[in-house]
């Protein structure tokens, strides 16, 4: 962020004094007191006489002017005066009117620090009504994004991530400048032209060289962040003429598309090198080769969270290889045995079979369920094959979630999604990752297909199953929000446990004893960190769009304020937290790319117009990069 220019408070006081309302008598006396006349006149009797005469004359003029004003005011009260008298009253009355007319008042000038304080207090007070309040709150999210980007640009440009405390960059995602690509479409949506220009120029100048020369990257992370970011930037910058009215700066759309194809061609080796339809987890970019993880297994969520990106690349490039290879994974998963639609979190690329019995919707399991419904939404009107099986798999899985994983806490009855670490015959765990908070948004999206609940009900589009899923979505969103409000900082831990009937986990609460749910939620010592994650605000965004209930906006604003208060680093950027249950929390030296790519994007959209990236025309990948639904593009 650019530094505030130095400002002299003496100058500010001087400017304010120029416009302070003062009486005519005071001005004359002050002028006299400051002049050399004072020194000369007060030394002689004639001067003293003249001073007394002047004061008496001023008093007489003031008395006459007051009588004149009172006289005219009385005439107005008797409805005698017309518009001309009213004008005279406002502009000065009688022969002395011009003399007494007050100069226009200008607002006082504020120092830069006072401006920031004033803005902050305006936001915190929440004293604005209607749309104006949300316009200002949305603007504050954009300011946070600029602050995050400024720190990254100054200290870590070209690195994957910013270390805001040590003010340097680090490559933890393969060295492709992940923050640049992840943040670009957020800047486009916000209209942050300077960021668009800086990020776009870096991508055009450096990214192809990085892709050609870098070594090992993770297939999943590179696909959702870098490939997804490039494809979204292609569309938002005018590709397909779908969003040409945005008139964004930076490179032309074809630049993003060509770089995306280069990257995807190298990532394809993960699919073609595997002996089954399940891709390997790691790719060597410069060699166009791939290999499995050290333990030989892939995460179920990772191999099933590639299809939106490769399908869209096939659609815009005309090369069907990308989508065909990616969709083979889902077609294969359809054939495997499941537990009421639920799947273990590991799968072997060598055998093509699931490994272990651990079932959860947190890490390594989450986006499998998310992409079932999203890929169906993306492809259901295409001519590339029948994808009805995806919707059937999704519906079966959500029934399994309600039956096997959903419980209520005690004593207050928060609805949460637990885990089956040893399969359906093993013990139930009341553990819920923050990652699971993607589910409310996914459930709501699956219920209405992106249109508002009101419209869906008016058109009789909701089934009983849809209504059940929508109710569960709202209940879970409440729980996810309470995971924030139960802590001292107002920010959620990475993992929470819930007290359930007959069993209680050991651990402590969140530190906010005034929370209604202080006894329902348990946070263990090793789980108290916060990584600036987006899942809860993602679901709040989707639920607000679908239910039109403003409480989701208010919850999002509370979360944003907590991020601003506790994670902002003054020199630029934001830092993760070690422990959300203590004050002040200690910051970690890491700003995740998804804070710019997802968290701030969803907050900005939550506070904005529903016609920006509408959910019935776009589908967000799991890194919040929006792709147009093909039928919507064709209609345009």
Radius of gyration: 32 Å
DSSP helix count?
25
Instruction: Work out the helicity level.
Output: 40-55%
Q: Can you count the beta strands?
A: 15
Query: Could you name the ranges where pLDDT drops below 50 across 5 or more consecutive residues?
Result: 1-22, 31-39, 65-127, 632-636
Shape: globular
> Major sheet, described briefly?
3 strands, antiparallel
Mean pLDDT: 85
- The termini sit apart by 38 Å
Structural class: mainly alpha
Trace the largest sheet across and list its strands.
3-4-5
Strand-residue fraction? 5-15%
Compact overview of the structure:
The chain has 636 residues and is mainly α. It has 25 helices and 15 strands.
Question: What does the model show?
Answer:
This protein has 636 residues and is mainly alpha-helical. It is built from 25 helices and 15 strands. The strands form six sheets. It has a three-stranded antiparallel sheet. A three-stranded antiparallel sheet has the order 6-7-8. It is globular and about 115 Å long.
Summary keywords:
636 residues, mainly alpha, three-stranded antiparallel β-sheet, 25 helices, 53% helix, disordered N terminus
What's the topology here?
Elements: H1 9-18, H2 24-34, H3 37-41, H4 45-77, H5 83-91, H6 97-100, H7 112-125, H8 130-156, E1 161-163, E2 168-170, H9 178-190, H10 193-213, E3 216-218, H11 219-236, H12 253-267, H13 269-272, E4 282-284, E5 289-291, E6 298-299, H14 300-303, H15 307-317, H16 321-335, E7 346-347, E8 354-355, H17 366-379, H18 388-405, E9 406-408, E10 415-417, E11 431-433, H19 439-448, H20 453-458, H21 464-485, E12 495-498, E13 521-522, H22 535-547, H23 551-567, H24 593-606, E14 618-620, E15 626-628, H25 630-635
Antiparallel strand pairs: 1-2, 3-4, 4-5, 6-7, 7-8, 9-10, 11-12, 12-13, 14-15
